[in-house]
Amino acid sequence: MISFKEVTFGYPQKDLYNKISFEINEGDQAVLIGSNGTGKSTLLKLLMNEELFTYEGVIKKDENIRIGLVSQFVGHEDSDVTAFDYLAEPFVELQRQNDALCEEMGSAENMDEVFGRYQKVLDEMDAVDAYNYPSNIGKQLSIAGLSRIENLPVNKISGGEYKMLSIIRNMLLKPQLLIMDEPDAFLDFKNIMGLTRLINAYKGTILAITHNRLMLSQCFNKILHLENEQLQEFPGTFAEYNRAMLDTKISMQENAAKFDDFIAIQEQVIKRIRGLAENTPDPSSGRQLRARVSYLERLKIMRGENPFIEEHDYGFHFPEVGTAAKENADSETGIISETDGVTGSEAVAGADLSAAGDSAKADRKSCTDCPQEPVISVKNFSLVFDRPILTDISFDIQAGEKVAIVGANGTGKSSLLEAVYEQMKADPDKEIGFFRQIYDNDEQEMLSGGERNLRQLRALCDTNVSILFLDEPTSHLDTYAQIALEEALAEYKGTVLMVSHDFYTVANCADRILILENGGLREMSSRAYRKSIYKNYFNSELLEQERKRREIEVKVNALLKAGKHAEAKAVLEAI
After folding, report:
1. Secondary structure of residue 547 in the 3-state scheme
2. CA-CA distance, 5 to 9, in Å (whole number)?
3. How many CA atoms lie within 13 A of 413 on its CB side?
4. CB-based contacts of 493: which residues, under 8 Å, 6+ apart?
5. pTM recorded for the entire structure
6. pLDDT digits (tens, 9 = 90+) for 482-506
């Protein structure tokens, strides 16, 4: 269906691929993975429109192949057409063309020409099963968990729901190859689970990019790993690929250790020959020395490196929160309260950051028996756009707490986070950092969305903040960067308020969960939240399997760093 043979491509600023080869065959559900900035999205563009690029090698596609594309960014159509009618549009249009051609054939002078166009439309209707589109739409909405929006206007549904409709519409059109570039981007947890079900129920061929660990663990039967300008093709699941790569890493380091021992011996031989050559006029000693040096250079090349095995040391370390900073956080309160009478397209949020004046602050500092004051306090907050989003919500966050805001797309999570931040940053005594979602790539700097997010995170690591506001911090990050971020957040002693749809990030990092739903707020412990997710979406074994996979990977890597290859192999074989 699709084949790349020794394709080399890059930009003046950056080489991306060096003689990469792979195939996509009918029935494959392949996922393209790799570190941020390796050129995954560019590879999809090259596959779709190779005529626009100058590259070396051969790209072959089946003749007249029908390709569907789901991009990271799907604009929300402002229309009062219902979700069902939006999905039905291409099929209704085909039926309209069919009816028009039938009428035209009744009076056509050139019947063969009209019949040819009619047959083409019939073939297209057969290819997309246009005759059964109402039932097919119903089935797809049911699989995705979106049957409730079937009769809602698309301008009344969330951006995430609209993106899901776009994915469903592409699937209903039955392309021979469906390409999806981070289809999970900006989807809430419920829609990500719906997308997972859609992919697993889909009978066609898929090539997708995703860093979502839930999707990687449950979808796809082929792995394409792009790293260091090379591409490795693996038939199997992500878990199987991860295991194979660990096995490869052990074998590679075992061989490297043997090479290193032998190289050390050769270096001693060269040292001895060099000493003899310097103290004898015999020209044969010089020739022998040059031969040995050349042999040593070849040995070092033969030792080699595996381009797909990296340490992935992202080095996220958020600032230490000192005693002074913590005392400051303990003693001051940030309050956001409702402002009466503000409506329209802006949030209803007051700017009363300090509930008490300076004298009250002094009283709190001097009162050793007083209860700890919250670092962040939100009181009676409301949010209104073209309709009420949030009404009279309140919560407190203590110093050092890590709190996650979760909820469906369109419930006001990012707007709430932004409002809290905007009010609190006005206080010069508070050291606050903010991570914002990035919605598009930086074409001028040739940075992917993941690379730009990495730059944001590293900039926060270089600050002295004691409070972090994070809006979807794992978005576009590769899996190793996500894990590194979670580890850094676990070590951070400051206060965190974050918005996230990533179940693993929320489960691994948050002490408490604030759930936005139906215009209000419901609070849960992290443990209770995990249990509710297990109950509603999947068995608790899924998180445990991912935890064990990561635990084994960490243990194997630690043993390899210590040079304990046999022990590392034993850990892997015990699985």
Report:
1. helix
2. 12
3. 29
4. 320, 321, 326, 400
5. 0.79
6. 988 999 999 999 999 999 988 889 9
pLDDT of residue 298: 65
Burial category of 366 from C-beta neighbours within 10 Å (exposed 0-12, middle 13-18, buried 19 and up): exposed
How many C-beta atoms lie closer than 10 Å to residue 34's C-beta? 22
Question: CA 303 to CA 258: how far, in whole Å?
Answer: 9
Tokens coding 490: 């676990």
Q: Which pLDDT does position 548 carry in this prediction?
A: 81
Cβ count within 10 A of residue 202: 17
Reading the block at residue 452, the tokens are 């730009």
Question: What is the spatial distance between Cα 460 and Cα 472, in angstroms, rounded to a whole number?
Answer: 15
188 Cβ neighbours under 8 A, 6+ residues apart: 160, 406, 407, 408, 409, 501
Q: Which two tokens stand for residue 439?
A: 């919605």
Q: Residue 361's pLDDT is what?
A: 35
d(CA 469, CA 435): 6
CA 296 to chain centre: 43
Q: Which residues of the chain have pLDDT under 50?
A: 323-333, 338-370
Return d(Cα 195, Cα 263) in angstroms, integer. 52
Residue 182 near residue 495 (C-beta atoms within 8 A):
no
Q: Which residues pair with 381 in a beta bridge?
A: 393
According to the model, what pLDDT value does residue 550 have? 78
Distance CA 171, CA 208 (A): 13
The vertex-345 CA angle with 343 and 348, nearest 5°, equals 45
Please report the DSSP string for 237-298 in residue order. Answer: -HHHHHHHHHHHHHHHHHHHHHHHHHHHHHHHHHHHHHHHHHT---HHHHHHHHHHHHHHHH
Q: Where are the alpha helices (DSSP H) in 438-540?
A: 449-461, 479-491, 503-509, 526-536
- Of how many residues is the chain composed? 575
Report pLDDT for 559. Answer: 86
Closest CA to 432 of 316, 314, 515, 321: 321
Give me 99's structure tokens: 């009816």
d(CA 54, CA 50): 8
- For residue 383, report the phi and psi dihedrals to the nearest 5 degrees: -135, 125
Nearest residue to 38 via CA among 253, 227, 216, 277: 227
Strand-strand pairing, 376-384 and 347-348: antiparallel
Alpha-carbon separation of residue 390 from 109, 348, 394 (angstroms): 64, 9, 11
CB contact at 8 A, 178 and 204 = yes
Pairing relationship of beta strands 495-499 and 467-471 according to DSSP bridges: parallel
The residue type found at 557 is N
Q: Which of 454, 468, 527 is nearest to 497 (CA)?
A: 468
pLDDT of residue 402: 96
- The single-letter DSSP state of residue 319 is P
How many Cβ atoms are within 10 Å of 399's Cβ, its own excluded? 23
**CB 454 within 8 Å of CB 281:** no
Q: How far apart are CA 53 and CA 41, in angstroms?
A: 14
Taking the C-alpha atoms of residue 381 and residue 419, their distance in angstroms, rounded to an integer, is: 10
